[in-house]
Amino acid sequence: MPPEAKNLSLLKALAAIAWADGHLSNEELNYLKHLALKFNLSDKAWVKLEPYLDDPVSLGEGETLIKDFLSKINTPKEKKELLDYLEEMINADQQVTPEELEFLKKFSQIIRDTSALGIIQGKLKGLFGKTLFKPAAGRDNELSEYTHNKLLYKLRRRLAEAKLESELPLERLNYLTLFGGLMGRVAYADGHISAEELQKIRAQLNQPGQFTPSELDILTTVIEDQTLKGLDHFRLTSEFFKVSDRQQRLMLLDCLFGLAAADRQLSYQEIEDIRSIAYGLGLSHKDFIEAKLKYLHRADSA
Q1: Which among 278, 299, 281 is positioned nearest to 289, based on CA atoms?
Q2: Domain-by-domain residue ranges, the chain?
Q3: Does domain 142-301 have CATH number 3.20.20.450?
């Protein structure tokens, strides 16, 4: 097996263990990045690893990733390297919890004392969940939220980290993050998001009584960051369709043309992105043309 495939498998397994408490600390993240550099991980392999650094790993997936790596090693040297890397990562933040110590002790004993892969996997069954993995209250809901609206998931985590809590109902936050995410898609049509485009997105979301300046700063940053990383725009459109009525969809369409016109012109890609969103929202070709003409009439008047 190529060394890079084994190294990538190791990094995924370590990431799963790091996420077991529902949080990947900066120290853990930096350690994993350090290993990626040490292994001279290629860009192609890094793209495969990045999702495991960016988002939580569930219990089931974590156990699968650990078993996958164990299937790729068999020598005492490889086992020792795994345990060394694991111990270094757990100690990265210099705050080793009792759960981490228990997991490391039992995991190390199983790996060192057992040779057959099948027996190792049998002994490991449930260990991850019994010791290290701590499903927080509502974790299943959070993961479901992540699947349906990554922007909302990221926003709530960033607000929690900043010790802020929006007073808006969750349904409203969901709507606004989807709205802002679709604006981000159009802003990014040319491969970057300008400061003027970000300001327009911020202004659109800055309705009275919705966000404090700090909350709005975080929301705008989340939209920019996640748009640049690559969002599932089909899902964004689909989810916005579920939570909006026809008037809200037409309002979004109008905002998208206004955003695209931030530089006083409409590019081909911007028009095609808006068209794709409009059709994905069940709006007609007539709706799309009328919104476009409305923008052109405003531009001519200006």
Answers
A1: 278
A2: 3-132, 142-301
A3: no
